[in-house]
Design a protein that fits this description.
homodimer; 344 residues; alpha/beta; seven-stranded mixed beta sheet; globular
Chain lengths: 344, 344
């Protein structure tokens, strides 16, 4: 038997360090008007992207980010062995319809807004096992498709409480390869489902924060690292409220997350000017921020070691209507570049 | 760089041969009245299983199959490193709510009714990479929950055309370990999404058959095996109509599937007596047939080499209402026992 690469309880050491050789991010007009606009590869003028429904539009975003990330890697679709993708829509139709057109062998995932790191976890495991030359991890979300599926018809014009988040319209894709001078994945920590009883679908930051805390805490315990070993720790889409809860709870566990921790949902919009309340959310949120702002700054040398922790709220309208609370999950991926290998 | 374990285009050689050390299947009363009843571990008297909704009932089925499969393996929940599971309900709530109560690190999957082999594929890759001591692959479905989500309210009493299938109420779970004298996984073939334009949600066998054909054909091409190398080839839930299409199409490709091929959906019910038209369907269908009939007959020596090919129809009500056709996907897993190792 080979020795186990399971470190501690939930963390996997990815010894072969699969490289993220290219990324692509496409976003809607609102995201393209936000603070991170200079980092996105493509900003749409029209969030329908030429389609006749928001759901079909979302699928074209995923198709675009995947095909463009392949082009940026100077590869062809047939060079990609497997696509790991998922999204928020019922039966992950954005991903499956994109996968139909891409003709890449497909593994469909569902981790709600944690899907970007869930797909990176599965992609890393597959690469490290020697099962592929190149794989893609991708996800998408769309404000108008998510709003009408999970909350109210858009025409209803419901009021938004200050805890509400704004689903990001966008898709991010990452191409992984076995070699090359690119940012690489060193550890992944797979999360547990956590539920502290929040039932308000307009307060997903509070619902997801315990899962983020659980996974981040576990990552530190399993690896022996601390927040200070990272240049940046980025949660997926907790928003301002979820980010504050996460900081406070991790402080109680003895981890200081006040100097180098951001939440992708809080950064992607100018919440006051853009009226996005607690911040952005959706699978696409951490996907485009990681593919854009984080990856591009790693390539420039600004961040050498980043912990990306996408966070998902595992509700459905059925579970909510039946009185269930909202479970959360988070998966963490450690990405490094220019650290001279893995010191842990 | 280690050598690639990707064989041909879509097949992975699982060199460490993870063992399926236990399985558990729980089914509803109708399945428990069918031809395979003697192979199920638990037959419910009441398909609500003491809950107040069909969705909550489905989640208890998954919880039961997972916990009972762990007990049968003489393990504890904390011995299971990761749970790979998914289901048909929106946002896979059967799986996520079960995962919440199980407290096992969780990877949520969505491959519609292909989820049993999708979860076995991801479980095999994770085991082979040395990332876990024990993992579980599981899935569930529930007739009443699926019917009202995908088709009509049950109270409506809609007529069923002869192409219709009956969603299986049940859940199957498999525990994988690194060693022991048990059936083991040797190859997995990951499928592409295939869509030949079927739009009728009451003819899913025809919608899924091309995906089954694609994956089975690819498995044979990649491994150099033929149907005659298997004692049994079992598709997931194509039903009678899909099974016939699959046989005919594979015959055109030169593969004779007339002597040792069954479809789990066709076998689980006595379609005439039980009025299940083309047969059973749902994630739970291939899960309980594989965990029951197939696994138990492998342990007895009746089948030495089985190719399990769960098949999924990737529709949502949204995609159907927007005029989209129904894409299909299938993943294949080669399970062997007593073959004296891998001859391919």
């Amino acid at each position: 038997m080979d020795k186990l690469k399971l470190i501690g309880k939930q963390t996997l050491k990815i010894e072969s360090k699969p490289r993220i050789i290219s990324t692509f991010s496409v976003v809607g007009p609102k995201e393209g008007d936000g603070p991170l606009k200079d980092y996105f590869d493509l900003i749409l003028d029209d969030d329908l992207n030429g389609e006749d429904s928001y759901e079909k539009a979302e699928s074209t975003l995923l198709y675009t980010s995947v095909t463009e990330s392949i082009k940026k890697a100077k590869l062809k679709p047939q060079d990609i062995n497997f696509l790991f993708a998922g999204d928020l829509l019922n039966q992950i139709i954005s991903s499956t319809f994109a996968a139909r057109d891409l003709e890449i062998p497909f593994i469909g995932l569902y981790g709600a807004c944690s899907t970007m790191t869930e797909s990176l976890c599965m992609a890393s495991i597959t690469m490290d096992g020697g099962f592929a030359r190149n794989v893609i991890a991708a996800t998408s979300s769309h404000f108008s498709a998510a709003e009408r599926q999970f909350r109210y018809p858009l025409e209803f014009g419901n009021q938004r409480p200050p805890t509400a988040q704004w689903t990001v319209t966008g898709s991010g894709s990452m191409v992984l390869a076995r070699e090359g001078n690119y940012p690489y994945i060193t550890y992944v920590t797979i999360g547990k489902v956590k539920d502290y009883g929040i039932k308000d679908a307009n307060n997903m930051g509070a619902a997801m924060a315990p899962a983020a805390v659980s996974t981040i805490y576990r990552h530190f315990k399993d690896t022996g690292r601390t927040p200070q070993d990272y240049d940046l720790i980025a949660t997926g889409d907790l928003g301002k409220i979820g980010r504050e809860i996460t900081q406070k709870l991790l402080k109680e566990y003895g981890y200081d997350m006040y100097s180098n921790y951001i939440d992708c949902g809080e950064e992607i919009f100018d919440n006051e000017r853009q009226k996005t309340d607690s911040g952005g959310s959706g699978c696409g949120c951490s996907a485009v921020v990681a593919s854009g702002y984080i990856y591009k700054n790693m390539r420039k040398g600004k961040f050498k070691r980043v912990l990306l922790v996408s966070t998902g709220a595992l509700l459905s309208t059925t579970s909510s209507l039946q009185g269930e609370s909202i479970p959360g999950i988070a998966h963490a991926v450690s990405i490094e570049y220019g650290t001279g290998g893995d010191k842990a």
